[in-house]
Please model this.
Amino acid sequence: MILLLWKYVQKRPSRWQRWGPWWLLWMPLVVQGAEPFEAFLEALRQERYFDTALAYLDRMESSPDTPPPLRQQIPLERARLARSAAEQESDFGSRLRFLEKASKDISAVATESSEPEFQADVAVERWEILGAIADQWLARAVAKNGAGTDENARSKADEAITQARTAALASVEQLRVLLKEMQDRPRERQDVALRDRWRTDFIAAQMSVPGFTMKSAQLVEGDEPEYRKRLKEAADAFGQLSEKYGRTPYYLPLLVKRGQCHQLLREHQDALSFYGEVLENAPLPAALSALATQLSMECWSSKEEGKSQKAVDQGEAWLRSHASEAIQVTAPVRLALVKAMQARSEASGKTRENDLARAKQLLSQIIRGHAPQAAQAHELLASLRTGDTSTPNLDGLASFSEAKLEADAVLSKAQASESGIGLIRSRLEQIKDPQEQAALQQEIDEAQRGLRSQYAEASALYRRALDLASPGDSLDDVNRVRYLLGYLQFQQEDYYDCAVLSEFLARHFSDGPTARASARLALGAYYKLFESGGTKSPFATDHLIDVARYTALRWPNDEEGQAAALTLIRFLISQGRITDAQDYLAQLPEKSQLRAEAELATGTALVREFLKAKGERSAGAAPDPELARLKEAARQLLRDGLQGRGSGPATSTSVVASLALAQLALDDRDAAAAIDILQEPGRGPWTLLTAGDPATADPAIREDVYRTALRAQLFASMNGSPAARPTDDIAKILKELKVQFGDSEQGRARAVAMYVGLARDLKEQVAEADPAKQGAGLDSFVTVLEGIASNSKDPDILHWVARTYQELADGAASQGPAAVSKATGLLDHASQILQELLKSPDMQSDAKRRLQMEMALASLKRRQKDYSAAIPLFVSVLKDNPNLLNVQKDAAYTYQEGQAYTYAIKGGRPDPKTSKNIIWGWEKIGNVVARQMRRDPSMKEKFGGIFHEARWNVASCRYQEALTLEGEKRLRYLEQARQAITATTALYPDLGGPTWKTKYEQLKGDIDQAIRDASPDGPSRGDT
Amino acid sequence: MKMHIVTSRLAWVLLSFTAGPLASSQADTIKLQDGTSIRGEIKATTPNDIEIAVQGESRKVSLAQVQQVVFDEEPSSMKLIREFVADRQWEQALQSLNRVEGDELQDPFVQQEVAFYRAYCQAQLAMQTGSGINEAAKEMFTFAAQHRDSLHWYLATESLGDLAMRLGRPDKAADFYEAIRAATWPAMSLRGTLLKADSLALQGGEQTSQAMTLYGTIIDSKAEGPEVDRLQQLALIGKARCQSDSGAFQEAIDTLHRVIADNEAQDGALFARAYNALGTSFRAAGKPEDALLAFLHVDLLFHDNSEDHAQALHHLSQLWDELGKADRAQDARNRLRNRYAGSNWAKKP
Model:
């Protein structure tokens, strides 16, 4: 603690910085003169590469080129690094090992013939190291673990405190002499910087002495008079020092120390007044502020004060105002906050869920930040577990091995219980009688309750074992206990704690026997956390990736490493991070089963991405080379993966990969290749499915196999491919698919989605197909459209089906008279669908959709030449929407095609209210658009074509009607027809441009000829 | 490492820019290395010298003496552009270049200046990001071919060599660097020699002995000056790399230790190159712990040059793995990928 306080006062320069000026004098004499020792060592320290820094010092020490003064100081620097390394460790044993190494190194420093400055530095380092060792043992000795006192720790702590105090006193005396000597020098010979540094070291050493007295008091807590005596002695000493250094930066740290003495004396109000005085001083160094806040919070949440809420508020407020500080600085407050929340829960008798989550967050940040309080945080985290109802008697356990043996025995029982539950479960599956089933289920429930209790008991015992662990216990044994504790946390669904503990083991003891298993456990726990939080849990996602990556790289040739790599790749794929997945794939050993599996997973993901990207492209878009590359990359990966697997038994991954490969072949329009893949002996998905292979047991996979097989067969039949199977096989597939989809709403939706996708593909194929093969394609298409119509009730989809039938009919009609009957049949299908749709109750309430359907059906009826059915539909549409020009045109054509020429020209179906014709006829259509064009000449472009279409049709209708008449009547109608054209030509001499002009001229020619033919004199010779 | 050299060269020719008083003098200005300036009308340039008329009298100034050139009619934004280039802010420099209006480019020298900077920035950006290298090479080649008399011609040629190196064509790069050897002042000529030697050394095989000979030429050169001294140190590092490649590890390591001892650590680029070479030699000699310490020097202390840093991170990512520190290896790998995605080192397995 003194060391900590000391750091608030002044950041001391590193040893190298301190010695730099004089050891650099030797530099010209050595070969490695410009090697930047100091900067490099400091950089290693900053990076916390303490092990590397120690190795660097070893090299410097063994190098013949290192100058002797530098060599002399290496043990001291090594000690300092070991002390820093100890701070980084989170467990007692490792910390102590580093500190003991530091102590050994500092003892090895030869100071006899060295400069006084160097001797002083060594003395300071010595008491600091011994003080740190004392802190470790003291924490162990006073730990409240419910197991009585740890006499060994107490004795070790006592010994270390005595040694540290002696070393500190020696340092005080040494520095007192040096400062006196310096003071006696003439002013011009005084080194001010050195004097200030010695003064700082002198005060710190002085402060440490009552600090050690205070610590020693904690070792005699049972002896109240002695305890109080020591603490009062320490408080008085701190008081004297604070009076002495009242105007220096040491004053506030001394107040904190005085407060601490009063706090230990349970004089909390006095302690709080000291802490309050410190905290009132702003700005305060963050570390000192953290310490004062932590101690203050402890006072508030003590049993005597009972104000844990105040402590929680203080802690949260402090953390908010120090959010940017490093975890090393904030860790004491975080820890105190967790303890305050615990105290609050104990006081109120209930645990708040939010508190638990917050506490876990605070503690895990301390652990992950490698703060010096990490070990404490670990212990607290373990004690925060929920649902731990077992309270085994831990008092009789005196050593790590005893506790571990007990725990192992309970764990064995738990494992036996697990097996027992498994047996009962298998019996339950075989039993049909409900009563027996209920009895067995009850048995299982009871056994599980017992199992949970055993897990909890074993956990408590393993934690106790860890409490009792000492440096003498084998590290492997300790880590095995940690691993088992993690395993039990996993079993108890305490995934958060399990993940943190297991990851710690996997990373910090990566050479140990439990490291691999711990990595696997951590991975599993993070996966569970991911499952529960999904993408909303970046913590779980990031850690899962991080641990998988670490495991894969750390043990690339082991089962754990390879499984982690595969998990990582699959996880990245599931997160849409395909490129990252490919990067990791490239790192896997070639020609390995793992590589093959990963290639299949990645290749399948790429196929999905390819198909998705392709689906998002607009029709007719130019080929995208990037998409083509993606497709080829996917194909290559799948082929490599399938080849890499060799002839091993099929798995769901390999089946899905083969399906993806077949889909790529279908995308190439190579149905034969797709069928080859599907029917490949031994591993083709169709082959496996028909043979009942377990790899195709998953219903989703079965559905995919049928779906792909159907596409392949339909495409093949469309192309007349020799690989095509008979149509009855397609029917069989359809039947199987129907079973797969089931009759549920969801199943039908899936069926429709599949058929729609298929239909789109087929439509493209029909469009691209050789006209000679389009007939075969139509049959396939109709099969698919029927599939949709029979499964879907969605009006949009059914409307789309009807439209598609119409389009197919158009295609068929253009193929000549032979295909007319096919076209008629297609139109009947369309019409039937639309009629059914219009009958549905939903359509009655949806006017807009009804209008759309009526328009579609009217148009269809016209095409079917069912004019009497078409006209009422047009009336229904136009009644409320007379300005729908295209519908008006369609209606006029309907009259015209039905030879109702007058209606076609003049319109028909008067509205009973207005007496105006609902269907306008060509004359009105022409007049309406002419008026629009007169009002707004810019509309000419839009309406010009319609106007001439209308005018031309007026003439055409007259002409057509005339042809149905005889004699004078025919002649009169023909004259009217010619008049219509003449009038239009007079008003619009350009006749709407070359296209319409040609049409007008052709019609006029026909009319003139008909007039000549109809004249009483017969055809005029001169006219011919 | 080249980046540093290039920057030095830029500082030498282009960058130490104090345009304020010059802009108002209504004259082209050549600022010399010794701190003096010549003002007048620049009549002609070559890759080696500048002809300037001062009060009607024409004189030639060797580029060896020149620290910077400022054209009277250049756009005011040129100052900022040069500052961006000095800071290696290629994208910002290009943005400013793109904002230069056509009517600001009446003077042919200014046109040439802007064309050079555009090509140069594109080349540097392409090498930094790893994309568009072919296009950048095309533009720089066009500049070099059309402006054979540019005062930046050697730098343009060097950029072409660097681009060829990035395209994995050290043989082509050697041809470009060879052209720089024709410079009339020793520092530039030796620089071309060094670059050529580096490109030959990279090719390995028979080219190594040629590289050694060229390094020897530099090391034995009697030319003087701080620039030459530095080139000689870089040549020693290059020679040590060749020694290491041919199996003479200890000789290489001794040479590199001598270079480190003889120089000041303030020259970060030189030290980065030396420590990378030392690390490579230690690795080749089967001393991974020593190699790690050498590369860590670059990672922790001499990381200003992106190529050197990328090289060190590449080796560290492998060495940490070899030494059982997978998390540190992963950290090095991540930094390599995140910071230097365009570098060839990031693409190596």
Q: What stands out?
A: Confidence is low (pLDDT under 50) at residues 1-33, 386-390, 1020-1024 of chain A.
